Amino acid sequence: MPQLIAAPIDTLRHIETPEGIALSLRVAGPVARVLAWSMDSLIRYSALWVLLMVLAMLGKAGLGVWLIALFLAEWLYPALFEIYAGGATPGKKALGLKVIHANGTPVDWPGALIRNLLRAVDFLPLLYGFGLVAMLSNRDFQRLGDLAAGTLVIYRDPPAVAPQLPPGPALPPPFPLNAVEQQLLIDFAERSASLNPERQAELADLLAGQTGLYGVVGVERLCAHARWLAGEQT
Question: Buried (b) or exposed (e) across 140-179, using 16+ Cβ within 10 A?
């Protein structure tokens, strides 16, 4: 009888956008989402409490305005941030989360409204009971509102850090280079800090016939040419 090997639990999802771009997304689980929801609730109800204290001086008219503000905060607060703040309420942003469509595209008004209006169903019978059961029943941790809207809550990618050229002098190359060769030389210089000295020298030696230099001296000369190609001053 063949032995069954369980697949590892993985929250990484691979999808392809309508434009044909392959994406790898990290789906957010219940714990991170509960923490984000708690932060948003604290922000929302703290603001409503302060507003109530101010509007209470206006009597019944102030109470009416507050009830309207309560309605808007409860139903439009998440949707507005998800549409106009890159898919993230303040709580989600603090936890590094955002909402997108299941196909990888940014969430739109219909999706944001549907997923947030159905929070009333997810909340039943108490403290998002239905929503938690739904999240734990599917591999993408989608609550009922997400399933109806076709949305996912994922972790934001950390901002990309542009590679830096190593410091040093800049020298023009003594031989002509086409655009592809120039970019390869700049890429080598940018990646040199992540390579051990032996590997740097090995790659630099491939151009020793043009530079006449080997080893560490060849690496330094190629980096100097890369800095000149990148526009640094000699």
Answer: bbbbbbbbbbbbbbbbbeeeeeeeebeeeebbebeeeeee
Q: DSSP E strands: which ranges in 45-180? A: 97-101, 151-155
Nearest alpha carbon to residue 43 among 18, 22, 13, 73: 73
Residue 3 predicted with pLDDT over 70? no
For residue 92, give the amino acid letter: K
Distance, in Å, from the CA atom of 177 to the CA atom of 186, rounded to the nearest integer, reads 12
Q: Where are the beta strands (DSSP E) in 35-90?
A: none
Please give the sequence-ordered ranges of beta strands (E in DSSP) within 124-168, or none if there are none: 151-155
- Phi, psi for residue 208 in degrees, rounded to 5: -60, -30
pTM (predicted TM-score):
0.66
Q: Are 123 and 143 in contact (CB under 8 A)?
A: no
Average pLDDT for 47-72: 92
pLDDT, residue 17, reads: 66
Identify the three-state secondary structure at position 146.
Answer: helix
Q: For the segment 177-214, what is each residue's pLDDT rounded down to a tens digit?
A: 888 888 888 888 888 888 888 888 888 888 888 888 88
Give tens-digit pLDDT for 133-158: 999 998 899 999 999 999 999 999 87
Residue 117, SS3 per DSSP:
helix
- The span from the CA of 57 to the CA of 50, in Å, is 12
